[in-house]
Write a structure and sequence with these properties.
Elements lengths: L12 E4 L8 E5 L8 H4 L17 H4 L10 E4 L33 H4 L22 H30 L2 E9 L14 E4 L8 H13 L4 E3 L7 H6 L6 E9 L4 E2 L4 E2 L3 H15 L17
Parallel strand pairs: 2-3, 2-4, 4-7, 5-6
Antiparallel strand pairs: 1-3, 5-7, 8-9
């Protein structure tokens, strides 16, 4: 497979790290990528705006202050519409490909049924991405070239953090449309904190994050409507001192959702995010190291 990404001049993802990591937190922004490969764009009939509807616009910028607060950030440059690393490695829709998928592919997941597998069939509002079906080699090539190295990098960051501090907290950062889909069109809260219903991290972490955000004046929900995706579920092992939490940010707080552009409130909100990250990482670490040794996993 060929694409527009090059490890040196045009990397598919990057790690932004402080000179010295001073807190046991790792930030991850897997859906904010906005480098659309030319060959990928040639495969779609969608407009430049429509193809970006699944993008977590500038979430990497919103959490960039984490580096100065002493934590590393893993940032995807590739777009979610091209490859979704917040899925199992082979959640693939057979109807999207010209040939048979390997036997190990998960073709029956709820996410595949919804068109949002590892190689998505649609963007967020249901518009189909591709003008024609893909070769199996195309899909598997993206997984080998980008998905697997991305998760290797994430595992390494968490392992280094765990060794240094005795525990690690992964903060998986996303954004959400401001209004729920459907006839009612109800507004969403400012933030949704997901911890897979208390299975992916200590409840102390979840509630501390909520407390900090509420003290900043924001409305926060837990696990509704987002409890956390594959990354949160896969990496969260609180019994071993590996905690994973997902943060969904309401897009109306910082962007024009129609034009996919910064809103006048962007810089002010950026300051609030910096304050949140600074206060959140100051949380007490009592009971976060886990009750079982990591080697037992």
């Amino acid at each position: 497979m060929t694409n527009d990404f090059d490890p040196v001049s045009n990397p598919a993802f990057e790690i932004h790290a402080p000179v010295q990591q001073t807190v046991p937190f790792v930030l991850n922004s897997p859906h904010s990528g906005r480098m659309y490969p030319t060959r990928f764009l040639e495969m779609t009939n969608l407009s430049q705006i429509s193809i970006r509807k699944s993008e977590d616009f500038l979430v990497d910028e919103l959490v960039a202050s984490g580096v100065s607060a002493g934590m590393p950030i893993l940032v995807a440059n590739f777009p979610r519409a091209f490859l979704d690393v917040n899925r199992e490695p082979f959640e693939l829709d057979p109807s999207l490909f010209t040939g048979p998928l390997p036997d190990y592919a998960n073709t029956r997941s709820v996410r595949v049924a919804g068109g949002l597998g590892t190689i998505a069939k649609i963007v967020a509002e249901g518009e189909e991405i591709y003008a024609s079906r893909l070769s199996v080699e195309e899909g598997l090539g993206r997984i080998e070239a980008i998905y697997k190295p991305y998760h290797t990098a994430l595992r390494q960051l968490l392992a280094i953090t765990h060794v240094k501090f005795g525990y690690a907290v992964l903060v998986d950062c996303h954004s959400m449309p401001s209004v729920r889909s459907g006839p009612a069109g109800d507004s969403r809260p400012d933030f949704v904190i997901g911890d897979r219903y208390a299975s992916s991290c200590s409840t102390e972490i979840t509630h501390y994050a909520c407390t900090v955000l509420r003290e900043l004046g924001y409305k926060v929900e837990i696990n509704k409507p987002y409890a956390g995706g594959f990354i949160t579920e896969h990496y969260g092992r609180p019994q071993y001192g590996l905690h994973a939490i997902q943060i969904e940010i309401n897009r109306s707080l910082y962007m024009d959702e129609v034009r996919i552009a910064k809103s006048p409130q962007f810089n002010s909100f950026l300051g609030d995010m910096a304050q949140f990250l600074s206060q959140f990482t100051d949380m007490p670490d009592v009971g976060l190291t886990g009750s079982q040794p990591l080697a037992a996993e």
